[in-house]
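[agent] plan:
  1. take the single chain provided in the ticket
  2. run structure prediction with default settings
  3. attach structure tokens to the ticket
  4. add a short note for the reviewer (M.T.)
[agent] executing step 1
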Amino acid sequence: MEKPDDLKVDCEVFRQNSRVWIRLALGDEDRERLLSRGGRSLQTIRTLLTTAADQMEQSAFLEIYLTDSVGKSTPLRRRRSSAGPAPVRRSRSRGESVNRY
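[agent] step 2 finished; step 3 output follows
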């Protein structure tokens, strides 16, 4: 990371429905690193998060926000393109976890 002090992490745990909601906010300088290599760095983070959540029989949700120079955070929107696969959604009713990116 270019500016580790700009990284903000918020985590909410919903015990009732076994969900963990993680929000990351990072500066514009680190955006390129996160999205570099065709988004593979971001996909790696999501894969690790999903794997850890599955091991704990929970669902994990990850939201990423970009913070500009005045401190305003805006959500990073996932761009749909033919270059990458759509997010994986699995039904919990069939004994599997639900993962949204």
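[agent] step 4 note for reviewer: The chain has one domain: 4-94.
[agent] ticket updated
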